[in-house]
Amino acid sequence: MDRIVILGAGHAGCQLAFALRAGGHQGALTLVNGEDALPYHRPPLSKAFLTSGWAEEFLLRGESAFAESRIQLIRDTAQEIDRDRREVRMATGKPLPYDHLILATGAVNRRLQVPSGDQGVFYLKTVSDAEAIRRALPEARQVVIIGAGFIGLEFAAFAAGAGKAVDVIDLADRAMARTASHEISTYFERRHLQAGVQFRFAATISDILRKEGTVCGLRLASGEVVEADLIVAGIGVVANTELADAGGLATDDGIVVDRYLTTSDPCISAIGDCTRFPTSYASHPVRLESVQNANDQARSVARKLTGKALPYSALPWFWSDQGLDKLQIAGLTGGSDRHVVRGSPEENTFSVFSFRDDRLIAVESVNQSADHMVARRLIAAQTLLDPACAADVTFQLKTLVQ
């Protein structure tokens, strides 16, 4: 397997390239970066980047590291996969042959669908998105954020901290409804309200309002008008499966892969946000949008391509920094039937333990990193935990970890 090509130079693609070299791959290795920038960390875009702008510390690797590891980093865009010829046709017209191809194409922002279109609405996915928001924010007084997920709330905390009037609007009935328990939602809603953020839940956007071509607010389906001179939409992402679809690979809200992250073509793997994969931590295949999953899947495929294949089995975990609070989640909360609170939400330090059929499946920790680290080990090992012990702060959870 001499020629390996990786499409996508985000966390997954970049991690894979260096993991392949560390694992002993000596053949040609090409990393295709569709952005006009060196590969960079994405989590700071909704936080630190907005304060400082671009800095070298945001790079995943310095430019010299690619040359030193004999990784050909090319700034081009893939147009088509020719599976019969085993080559990728690039925007520049040059074919890129491969023996094994890895799709790390990530996800793209879900666009706001309103009658007048989304012109003038900001999104936050790339460094250019973040730079546009950073330039616009100083002149803004009224900021409206559409979407109360991680990205929306992280930016809400930043904007409120910068002295802006902030409204968050979401179709769901609570914050982070897709990823967090009711207890976590309630806590973060309270904390954001204390910081001056206002919420409108179960609200539908009917249109964006403009004055002389400039965004000045939006109208809700209820008829209410919310004024704004800066609107940021964080309404989720969709898997970037365009190349896979055109190439005839199996997709289903993500590129479908097996336990080894191999697609329906044995010469093509897929990793990261674009991938739907089977996991023992859910009853059905899932697609996850997280740095942890991207990096772990990259390391798994590197092992496979260097002769040390193992089924992908990493525990999912996530984090979100919102103002002064750090949320860390181990496991997947979906399907839980019992929640137990350990610690004190009133003192801003607690964890929520989620069980299904008396089995621990997830732990959400707020400003409680010790609980999070133990939880990752407990869930991965399928350790039995009495819910009463989980709620008892005097019980030492680490005694259960061998």
TrEMBL record:
Q: GO CC annotation: what is one?
A: cytoplasm
- Signal sequence bounds: none
Report the residue ranges that make up the FAD/NAD(P)-binding domain in this protein.
3-298
Cofactor dependence is on: FAD
Q: Which GO terms describe its molecular function?
A: oxidoreductase activity, acting on NAD(P)H
Keywords of this protein's UniProt record, alphabetized?
FAD, Flavoprotein, Oxidoreductase
List the Gene3D superfamilies: 3.30.390.30, FAD/NAD(P)-binding domain
Q: Does Methyltransferase show up as a keyword for this record?
A: no
What is any Pfam family matched here? Pyr_redox_2
Q: Which residues form the Reductase C-terminal domain?
A: 317-400
Presence of keyword Oxidoreductase: yes
PANTHER family per record: APOPTOSIS-INDUCING FACTOR 1, RIESKE DOMAIN-CONTAINING PROTEIN-RELATED
Q: Can you name this protein? A: FAD-dependent oxidoreductase
